[in-house]
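Hi again,

Forgot to attach this to my earlier email, sorry! This is the prediction with manganese (II) ion bound. I've pasted everything inline since the attachment limit keeps bouncing my files.
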Amino acid sequence: MRLAVRGFEIYPGFLDLPAQRAVFGAVRGVVAKAPLFRPDTPSGKPMSVRMTAAGSYGWLSDKKGYRYGKTHPGGAPWPDIPPQVLDIWHRATGLERKPECCLINYYGPEAKMGMHQDRDEADMQWPVVSVSLGDDGLFRMGSTTRGGKTESIWLRSGDVVVMGGEARLSYHGVDRVRAGSSTLLPKGGRLNLTLRVVE
Ligand code: SIN
Ligand code: MN
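Structure tokens for the complex follow:
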């Protein structure tokens, strides 16, 4: 099934439970090598999500601003993007081109993400693919200008969203998570992976 909401392509249940478990296992492997950290916003406030990444680039935020970087704040290169995750990108987009960054966001019960555009990549022709695991997250979708009408949908574990075409530069965010709605993550919470072509 595919839902189209304001240009966002939503694939509920893209990953069945065994596939969700396999992707979660692969993400755990990444986190073991590149631990989650809590970035600061450019204004110096700690974000409520914790983050890490896989691929040749990770996404960073601190007082210097938003940018991609080739190393984890600890200094090591980011781990490779797991093959199970690359497979989702290829299946969801049909593209041969591989993403260079898999940003991993972890939402505890109180975490959220404000409305923003994904605009730190060099070429916006390529879509961004989002994969949700664990607790439900209320995903809000707007348009390419800040403010105005929005629509929200609860993203559940295994759901995939493709942000391409008219939605590639649309504002989006996560208002809240529904703590305890999934048992996939042994300690609870929500993981969201976003796959991006950076260069
Ligand atoms: C993001 O926009 O980076 C995350 C979206 C989500 O958590 O669903
Ligand atoms: Mn985003």
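The longest strand covers residues 101-107. The pocket of succinic acid (ligand 1) is lined by residues 105, 113, 130, 132, 137, 139, 155, 172, 174, 192, 194 (CB under 6 Å).

That should be everything now.

G.
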